[in-house]
Structure prediction request, 591 residues.
Amino acid sequence: MRAPLFQRILVSAGLGLLLLWSLVPIYWTLATSLTPTIEFNVRPIHFYPEAPTLDHYLRLFGISAANIGGVNTASQFKLALFNSIITATGATFLCVIFSLMGAYAFARLEFPGRKVLFYAVVATLAVPGYAVLIPLFRIMVSLRQIDAYFGVTLIYVTAYLPLCLWLLKGVLDSLPRSLEEAARIDGAGHIRILLQIITPIAAPGLTAAAILTFLGSWGQYLVPLVFSPKVTKPLTVMIPEFVGKAQIDYGLIMASGTIAMLVPCLVVIFLNKYLISGLLAGSGK
Amino acid sequence: VSSANVISPRLRQQGIGKSSDALLGFLLVLPLLVTMVGLVFYPLLATTWDSFHRVNPMQQGTPFVGVANYTRMFSDAEVRQSWGNTFQYVALAVVLETVFGVIAAALINQVKRGRRWILAAIVLPWAMPAVVSGVIWEWIYAPGPGLLNGVLLALGFDYENFVWFNDGTLAFLLVTLVHVWRMMPLTIVIVLAAMQSIPKDLYEAACLDGASHPRMFFTITLPLVRGAIAVAMTNATVYAFNLFDEAMVLARNSVETRPILIQIFLEAFKKFQFSYGMALSLAVTILSLLFSLGFVARLHKSTRLE
Prediction:
């Protein structure tokens, strides 16, 4: 079954347009981050850097402080990068561990109220984060967790727990029980079964859950805008502030944007299979 | 070493294992439950309760005000405009993402080799922070050195210094475009997965009957992915209701592009009208749920027929 020639041309042209639409903005970010500031004044504009430079990156990391509003920006940037890594990684670990423990209990152990509890937690998938934002703010103020790593990390955890729990319980439900039963006959307890049998088999599901939590937490904006105003400010809050300055330094902004999208790009390139399976599980299919 | 480890099979037979299972179950769900109760269930109840009171850190006391916070949103001009904007975002984004997402999925479905890489390229815009895509597109839209004006200039249109965000309607459309750029991959992934699960022999049979490719798309592919399209539309609706980052980065607080979430953010954290903000956020939550339930109901109908 082969499509006629003109149809194949049509498909290729459509695919080409689709790829351009997806990738041109990303290419343009990368290209801009390598373009010397002087070239921005050239008209008509160049579609690629004529004399590529790492100047913006060097300034961003404070290696060269020339042509910049001071070393201040560099130290702020490094702190923001650190904050993003800490909160997103912390949230990912906590979320995956909590949801794996929960999924095992909900899938394998009998205890009163397990059905109700499971559905109550999963139902919060339908509750958008902003619905609880204002009371959360008051709670965090009273717990002194405004501008603190722990508070904001826990908020990210609650945002992705229901999704991860749903995903991992699905994985556990689909696993054959024979291995576990054999282990139990050999005298293994639940904790050992969870650590030594379930965790390795469920690794793809755990990876999918970890990717979704990490990418989601890495990209958060509204939550840190409210809860991380100063010391714990992540990249997502810092980058738009560059734009607000009187003298807009697009080279610097695009270099920081490139760094912020580097991690997601690596995940998509190397772990796309898990990401797609997580997306499909999370979309309610 | 767990307590369950210590219990011998003989004790288990006597029923002690069962109660220790229950205890372990509670212990395992405890961290999850404590976080969810403390940071989701309790705040959700607090939102509901406080939305019927006057809660403002600048004012003493929290008197009961009935539905005043809810009726107020109908007479508030700014809030009414943000509701309007949000509904327009939802309508436009869902239509664009669904139409072009289904076309894109059908195109990718034709690819035999290298589909993995095409899919990776397509998913990239979804994976990056929304704020970063906002900043990228702001630079593309920029007058002067921006890419959009540069391309138009290269094509022979005199757009070099055209300022796209001077016009409210244009600004609104451009913010929507960024949102669609970011969220369409989700529609593509969901619909493509459904397309790939259609048995090949259906197409072979249709081919023997002499059906053309477009005809097969409309009589086989489209009806069989209807459920997936409904799921994708539900997701698109919820995400469009949640639009915040792109509008905030591209147009700050501008009234013409302001979605309801930015309005809530301003009411709560700039004007400190906590309870009014809570009433508004509950209203958005309920509306976005109702809209998505509409799609889910249709989905159930369509799966029962098939």
Chain B has a mean pLDDT of 86. Chain B touches chain A through 107 residues (CB under 8 Å). The longest helix of chain B spans residues 16-50. DSSP finds 15 helices and no strands in chain B.
